[in-house]
Amino acid sequence: MKQITAILLAVALVAAFILAAGCTGTGDATNLRIGYQPSTHQTAHFTAMEKGWWQDDLAPLGITQVTDYQFGTGAPEMQAMLAGDLDIAYVGSAPFIAAVSTGLDARIVAAVQTQGSDLVLRNEVPYSTPADLVGKKIATFPPGTIQDTILRTWLEENGVDPASVTIVAMDPGAATTAISAGQVDGVFLPHPSPSIIAAEGTGRTVVQSGEMLKDHACCVLVASGSLIREHPEIVEQVVKTHIKATEYNLEHPDEAASIYAGKTGQNVETVKASFHDWDGTWTADPKVITTSVVEYTNLQYELGYINKPLTQDDLFDLSFYEKARA
User: Fold this and answer.
1) Do 79 and 150 fall within a single domain?
2) Among 103, 120, 109, CA closest to 87
3) Are 223 and 47 in contact (CB under 8 A)?
4) Whole-prediction pTM value?
5) Are residues 41 and 122 in the same domain?
6) Are residue 83 and residue 225 in the same domain, yes or no?
7) Is 301 exposed, middle or buried (0-12, 13-18, 19+ CB in 10 A)?
């Protein structure tokens, strides 16, 4: 719990940055502020933004501007939402849980995807079982994130004390650089990072996250409590647009790869390889992930990241998805 608090405090400057960029609150409901991370997990946002769907779909509801903000990992993104500087967030469910446990007023209104992270080791590092990771240095997202939670739980379930592995917190860019430079033995990261490392020839996937925790929830779509209460019509339309973008990407993966590559500067062929190689699945249906997300609260409690497990009602508002699909 102390680790999570320290991380959230350390990134408090993110909120000041967003405010300095001229964001407005939801009181006038004219500028919708969306947080996201540079991961293929969240391609629905990239597509909706690139095609102008956010702006076009929300304009009839009084939204005149849609502004998005990139975050390296979920902890600083949730700090920005805690500070009231984001209305909508594409974020991992685990950092969202950690933020709710410290007072975040928000709910999951749709799923984004499941699974989709890989344990990647340098080519010269041997691997046959989790025990081979003892004494190794593995970079992954900070404590309380999806990747950190799954990695530590998987090690314990396989008889490996997480303390016997040096687990270092890094964002995907730093971790990818670190494995390429030989500064770490491996990484556990969401896509497209595993495909980028493979394309560079410095590492290979040895375990996918679905093998560690089958069908686990990963990224989710979160709406602030104030937006839910004051402008439920906007939240419903956000969910509708997210569904549209998710279904479009499933039907047009090559175009989705081009959109993602254009937004992030990644090589489009590497992004296509990521879509092919990952074990993830895009989905907007929150009912697919409710059990998994609630289970995360038990795992985070056992790891000491939160004070008590949370319930589905603490975390979800399924009504917007149900209305969007009606």
Assistant:
1) no
2) 109
3) no
4) 0.88
5) no
6) yes
7) middle
What spatial distance separates the first Cα and last Cα of the chain, rounded to whole Å? 40
Residues whose CB is less than 8 angstroms from the CB of residue 278 and which lie 6 or more positions away in sequence, other chains included: 40, 115, 116, 118, 191, 194, 195, 208
| 119, 284 Cβ separation under 8 angstroms | no
Give residue 206's domain range. 117-212
Structure tokens at 116: 């989709």
CATH of the domain at 177: 3.40.190.10
- The answer for residues whose C-beta is within 8 angstroms of residue 231's C-beta and 6 or more apart is 26, 29, 61
Among residues 297, 315, 326, the alpha carbon closest in space to that of 111 is found at 315
Closest CA to 192 of 181, 180, 205, 183: 205
Which one, of 117, 120, 127, 271, lies nearest residue 202 by Cα? 120
pLDDT 10s per residue in the chain (326 long)?
434 444 434 444 334 334 333 334 444 579 999 999 999 999 999 999 999 999 999 999 999 999 999 999 999 999 999 999 999 999 999 999 999 999 999 999 999 999 999 999 999 999 999 999 999 999 999 998 999 999 999 999 999 999 999 999 999 999 999 999 999 999 999 999 999 999 999 999 999 999 999 999 999 999 999 999 999 999 999 999 999 999 999 999 999 999 999 999 999 999 999 999 999 999 999 999 999 999 999 999 999 999 999 999 999 999 999 999 99
As a 3-state breakdown, the chain gives helix, strand, coil percent values, each rounded to 5, of 50, 20, 30
